[in-house]
Automatic annotation (TrEMBL):
Keywords associated with the record: Nucleotide-binding
UniProt similarity note: Belongs to the small GTPase superfamily. Rab family.
Source species of the chain: Elysia crispata (lettuce slug)
Keyword 4Fe-4S in record: no
Lineage summary: Eukaryota, Metazoa, Spiralia, Lophotrochozoa, Mollusca
Name of protein: Uncharacterized protein
Length: 190
């Protein structure tokens, strides 16, 4: 019997990095996932911000890294991506330039600095705005995701649509990848 401090078992953590151009809604998605109210206007993220929420069934803590989308902070991004288990690559459904940036920069960036087994998810955010002014159709997002062997989901941080589903998907994909890669690792002989 020990009289020392009682230790509680911490749930496993997964590091999820949100990447994409500025103003695609990375911060809004993170805040809504953390069950904070949606704000119409945010200040641009400088560097990176880390937030966490614990999911149930199975219990896991999602450590969400909200990264800056401005070009001047891109040199910091490989540091933020270290040990990430999931990269959520986000564009704005109502802004064609952000989708083109995903194709021409973000996908290759994530591939180059992500670690083995990194789960990637493509997200078209602001689907509420896209109902009025859609610049990227759903099929384009789906085709791009399929070409890179990753899931695709559309979200609306403003209305909370598919936000929890996005992070639950990330958790499930990470768990599956961890199980798959541990199965493939060679067994050491003694």
């Amino acid at each position: 019997m020990s009289n020392g401090p009682r230790q509680t078992k911490q749930p496993p953590q997964i590091k999820i990095c949100l990447v994409g151009d500025m103003a695609v809604g990375k911060t809004s998605l993170a805040h809504v996932f953390l069950q904070q109210p949606f704000k119409e206007h945010y200040q641009a993220t400088v560097g990176g911000v880390v937030m966490a929420r614990t999911l149930e069934n199975p219990v896991v803590t999602c450590q969400v890294w909200d990264t800056a989308g401005m070009e001047r902070y891109r040199a910091l991004l490989p540091h933020y991506m270290r040990h990430a288990r999931c990269a959520v690559i986000i564009y704005d459904c109502s802004n064609r330039e952000t989708f083109d940036s995903v194709k021409n920069y973000w996908l290759d960036f994530v591939e180059s600095c992500g670690e083995e087994g990194l789960v990637k998810i493509l997200v078209g955010n602001k689907m509420d705005v896209a109902e009025k002014v859609r610049a990227v159709n759903i099929q384009e997002g789906e085709l791009l995701a399929q070409s890179r062997d990753m899931p695709y989901i559309e979200t609306s941080a403003k209305f909370g649509l598919n936000v929890d589903d996005l992070f639950i998907l990330a958790d499930k994909r990470v768990s599956w990848h961890q199980m798959f890669y541990s199965y493939l690792r060679p067994v050491e002989k003694y």
